[in-house]
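Bit of a strange request maybe. I'm writing a small parser for structure token strings and I need a real example to test against, not something I typed by hand. Could someone generate the tokens for this chain?
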Amino acid sequence: MRELPLLNPTPPRWRTARAPAVPGPIRKPDWLKVRAPGGPNYMHLKGLLRTLRLHTVCEEAHCPNIGECFEDLTATFMILGDTCTRQCAFCAVTHGRPTELDLEEPVRVAEAVKTLELKHAVVTSVNRDELADGGAGIFAATIREIRQAVPDCTVEVLIPDFRGNWDALAAVMAERPEILNHNMETVPRLYREVRPGAQYGRSLELLRRAKAMAPEGLTKSGVILGFGETQEELLSAMADLRAAGCDILTLGQYLRPSTRHVPIAKFYRPEEFDALRREGEALGFRWVEAGPLVRSSYHARGQTRLLEAPR
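Reply from user aminoacidic:
Good idea to test on real output. This should exercise your parser:
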């Protein structure tokens, strides 16, 4: 197995030329407050995940919707372990050098999907840049196992960029996931600060190629707001995504996981998200999920309605 050096082994130094950051700690606006998790379904799902030795991005990334989604017995499974080879400045997932590759993980994900009787399964992963295929083979195996265990379940995969390995992308697309998601995260100017190790153009190219490989499927991407992007930059990025054939767009508020992460430059109000949703619809996106608490897989099951809708 070929090993690659970690792309960002030291914590980033925040640039002073960016938009002024909100000093911390700060009080979250009322529209960002959520009920603390802990209902019976929440506890049941957590127990199942521990029994099957599975990770979720809901837990690892400190998603604010975890109480709502777990109580509804839905979760976004995170494969390829819980250690990411990159260190994005907004993300709470543990970074470092992974020590193993669990080849039985796809089977356990499929078992969880069957136990929960899911109609739509969402699977994401950490970055595994030390693997030649970036983990694409495990993604493909997970899709196959879910299809075998629950034939009528649709599958959405939120994949990394595989460092531009288009053969790896083809291996995933050969399994025909109903929705292929790859998040843009932010605007080009902020990539070096917010998303080191990634490339804006590479992410756009991935979405273009995914659509070309499976035109009948849906492609999806997400942008996080609040890093200091301008309105013009945000609308330009949205237009770029649409030009790449992206069908579904998610827009949500950045919430700083800790003081070690990039500061919040702005809290967007709910009415601003409503305006951006209308802008996205005007650009031609078939579905725009926009709101302060929206994350990549929020209300993902509802988006599958597009699979039956006329194009």
